[in-house]
Amino acid sequence: MGQRQQHRATHSARDHALAVLRARNSALALALLPAAVAVVLFAAGPDVPDAVRWPVAGVAVAVIAVAAAVGVLIARARPAVTPTIDVSEADAPALHGLIRDLADRLAVPHPGGIALTPDCDSWLEEQPRTRDTGGPHALAGSDTRAPVLVIGSPFLWWMRVGELRALLAPVVAGTGPSAHPDIAAARRCVRSWDATAGLAAGAWPPRHPLLALSGAVSRLLLRAAGTHAAEMERGVAAAASARAHSVDHGVRTAAQEQVGLAYAGWDRLLTKVALPAWRMGRWPRRLNAGVVSALTELSRRDRLAAQGFASRLGERPACDLLEEPGRVDEEISLLAARLFHGGPGHDAAPWAPVDWTAYPEEVVDRIWRDRAARLFAALDAEETPTLARALSRLTEAAAGPGGPDALAARIGTAADGGTDGPLPAATTGGRSGVLPPLGFPAQPPATGRELLVEHVAAAVCCATADTTGATPALDWLDGPVLRSGSPRRPTDLKRLGGCVHSLVDEADPEPLRAWLTAAGVREDKPVRLV
């Protein structure tokens, strides 16, 4: 049954690939049609007057010249390349051996190489003939033209070896259909058309007429062959899934459960932990190790997630397949920072790594101090930065005309250039054809009052740390937190947000004063701002 499904899916993919190629051939035939008419007219001899033959010949030459130029532009267009970290066999002989054994079990060609990406996904990627940074390191005995196996780095750190092999089996099986000449040619056509359409998207036709024409032709071909290209990919995926069905099928079910868990942990780590550090020019050095810590903490808190967790700890983690997982983790972490955040501006200081042990002091504490300083500056209370003065000014601003919106606007203007500045778009390094495929989810912009609440809470946390011995800390699931310095006076941060909202929204400072008293915070003591 599985072989029949595989055979049927493969034939479907090939049929749709031929349909894509027919669209290409139809465009080529259309470009050659004037030349064919001219040949027929000249072959007819003196029966056709020169007044007809030569104008048709001129049109044919012009059409062929334009078609050749368009064809060259389309052929030379560089498809977008996923930014990855190449993994050579010297860096991961065990991982390369696992992929080779898996390809042999599936009776498919070996992938052309292995690369890692900071994303919770895995796929086969066709590589261009040349790359600025050199192609990925190929597997021994593999065809260098074969697609490269791209593995999501969180999988490598969170999953066990058996789970990773089961998860990658359908992906590696895709090298079989990909090796068919018709499917490979159809994919090259679609990638070239898509790349040309992307390049021509911003071209002004009067200034770049040839590029604009190439883009229009590519878009027409994509519309004509788009349905067949999608069905071809579905057929390839179905054939690969059917081929891999019998390989570690039971383990794959458990591995798929871990995919969702890894995605949740990775997304939480990026938004709650990595993003605050990126905004201030620091990149956490070991993001993938942080994912493991975050998911371990989730398993500790959530009994449902903890089911089977203890038994998994006894199995070998897939990152052991790397010779130096720490170094690879650092490279992936820096790539993630550049992809999802874009890097510091030209006038900013260069990025610096930060270890998880130093994160509370170098990231959390600095963010809070910067926000507190910004708040006191907006309140004109920098000379005497005490909570008592801040609460008094905030109460006056909240109760005054217009409420706290004017104060929030001043803080928002100052925050645009600081550690709370807007998230820039990911950069491409100025190289055409190297586009980041991983878009960081757009965060809804904080309203003025939300920003004001964050700054007031930061000032309170600074005062609490200065007067009660509490310390900034890192929670793997919630991000920056404040650890109480005294077990007798636990710091109830869950109530803090509501108390600050009462002050900002209702001009009522009493809930916050009660919270400060319960936490043992002295309002009259100056807050350290640096």
From TrEMBL:
Keywords, ordered alphabetically: Membrane, Transmembrane, Transmembrane helix
Ranges annotated as spanning the membrane: 21-44, 56-75
Domain of life per record: Bacteria
The name this protein goes by in its record: Integral membrane protein
Species: Streptomyces cheonanensis
